[in-house]
Amino acid sequence: MAQKKALLIDISLCVGCNACQDACKVENNLAPGEEKALSPTAYTALDDYDGVFVRRLCQHCEVPTCVSVCPVGAFTKTPEGPVLYDAGKCIGCRYCMQACPFNVPRYEWASTRPRVQKCIFCAPRLAKGLPTACAEACPTGATVFGDRDEMLRQALEHIAARPKELVHRIYGREEVGGTSVFYLSPVPFERLGFETTLGSEPLPMLTMSALSKVPNVVAVGGTLLAGIWWITNRRDDVRRHEAERPDAKHQDGSES
User: Fold this and answer.
1) Collapsing DSSP states into helix, strand and coil, what is residue 96?
2) Domain 5-202 class?
3) What distance in Å separates the CA atoms of residue 184 and residue 111, rounded to the nearest whole number?
4) Which ranges of the chain does DSSP label H, i.e. alpha helix?
5) Confidence (pTM)
6) How many beta carbons lie within 10 A of that of residue 38, not counting itself?
7) Could you tell me which of 135, 151, 156, 169 has the fewest CB atoms within 10 Å of its CB?
């Protein structure tokens, strides 16, 4: 059975050198140059919040919403952790962009053959037993790669060792059912632009829960509409039969 992998990003150790983005661009043959936000040519981006550097990338959810909403199976979740995208299957509906709780996928709007672009967790490198390019390039240990359970253990150890320096929360551990990218931070996550109200339930599970009510709604609604149809048609039948009765003219007073 494949061992799940993960990244542990300690924001307090990041110095903003951008080595992670440079390595990512080389690994994925993306256009060079520093980018502050995710784009079709930046699978990871480094932003500055008053001197605190925050790196963004696909969280590679344990139960990915993008996988669940894609109508053609263009997104898949591998046992090792990466959430992958197959441009050959994509029909350009962009449901993945609307559904992603972390607002990650980017679309090649300027291309005549547009694709959805995002981090693929260096899946080809993982298949060779190598770490992600960003983790390998990080000079300070701000980004560490390894087995998911080990990354969680290290995160807990960092918090225990520096309780006054780090927020007592591992972002990505529980959010929307857990992810393959964990963050530690020296300041509250909401101050760094993180969505902190997502809850721990995987979003596809919430959707399935809602959809499970649909058959009952349809059944009740169908019965109600059938009843209205029957009553309406019954009234028409009664009026027609009344008009066809031999004594109908006498009853309405038109003839004596």
Assistant:
1) helix
2) alpha beta
3) 37
4) 19-27, 65-69, 95-99, 123-127, 133-137, 148-161, 203-211, 214-244, 248-251
5) 0.80
6) 22
7) 156
3-state secondary structure of 106: strand
Q: For residues 172 and 184, what is the distance between their CA atoms, to the nearest angstrom?
A: 10
User: Among residues 65, 52, 135, which one has the least CA distance to residue 103?
Assistant: 65
d(CA 56, CA 227): 55
243 CB contacts (<8 Å, ≥6 apart)? none
Residue with tokens 């959805």: 116
Give the tokens for residue 195.
């969505």
The one-digit pLDDT tens for each residue of the chain (256 residues) are: 679 999 999 999 999 999 999 999 999 999 999 999 999 999 999 999 999 999 999 999 999 999 999 999 999 999 999 999 999 999 999 999 999 999 999 999 999 999 999 999 999 999 999 999 999 999 999 999 999 999 999 999 999 999 999 999 999 999 999 999 999 999 999 999 999 999 999 988 755 444 444 455 444 555 556 556 555 565 565 566 556 655 544 545 544 4
- Please check whether residue 144 is in contact with residue 151, taking contact to mean a CB–CB distance below 8 angstroms: yes
DSSP code string of 5-48: EEEEEEGGG-----HHHHHHHHHTTPPPS--SS-BTTBSSEEEE
Q: Tokens standing for 232?
A: 């309406």
